[in-house]
Amino acid sequence: MIEKPKKPDRADWHRLWGLMMVPLFERIGYETVVEMDLSAKVQLLDMVVVRRKEKKDFRTWDSDYYSGFENLNEHNLISFKSFREVFNMTALEELYGHFTNYRKMKDIGEDAKGTVNLYAVTHHFPEGLFSRFEEKGFLDRIGAKIYDLSVLTPVRFIITKGSDHPILGLFSDDAEQVMKSRHRLEKEKWLLREVSSYLGRLYEHYSLEGIDMPYTQEMFIKDHYPDWYAKIRAAKAEGKSEGKSEGKSEGEARGRVIGEILMAQRILKLNLYSQEQLENKSLEELKKALSRIEAELSSH
Questions:
Q1: What is the pLDDT of residue 294?
Q2: How do the domains of the chain map onto residue ranges?
């Protein structure tokens, strides 16, 4: 019996986003809480960032890592909306509700409410919400894809669509954008070390969404089997050469997949398929075999 694919878990996607953002805030002296429960109805706020140490000057690093967060306060409440969601009036009301509940929980009085900042990190431009206020002078453009909505308590909006931010850009439905962010992440070794354990879960979500993210197996091996990475690259090159010699694009793809399967089997010390067996399989059969190997890798 064939199992139906699981539906992506929205709550887990938001949790994953929060966990991967934690290192950036901790590095500049803030303590973080992911998914804080601030209501009796269990409506979770995606992230709370609280200053615990002397504030560090994040401009000594790549400043665009903190674009929109330059004005971090003592307390910072962050709501996140993915590419499957829109930040609308309901979302704004929920954020204000979290703000009120947080102040009650932390005993932050009216005279000290200025120590709390509100942020909305959203993939889509909130056109429907902004259209309600832009003609009334409540909306200010602070920078590229950064806006302040000053209704009641101000909310800083950070639009992430098209961003190559090493974390925020990974939470896009655009494969090209994800790859650009991934390349930036690889250059920041400290950040890659902090979030590498979450990357497999991130790509699993994309698989459940039906979005094809290229080279995910290669990324997994690079993160978890760095000693084998050069050998994997060599296997890919060899596979591509074999495919090209057949003079067909399908032959090139078959050669590449065969090379990946053989190398992955060596990593796991498995002998599922011989090279002769693989060469007699169709491209579709090879992809299924590679999926089986990837499942073995992910379980290690």
A1: 72
A2: 10-188, 215-298
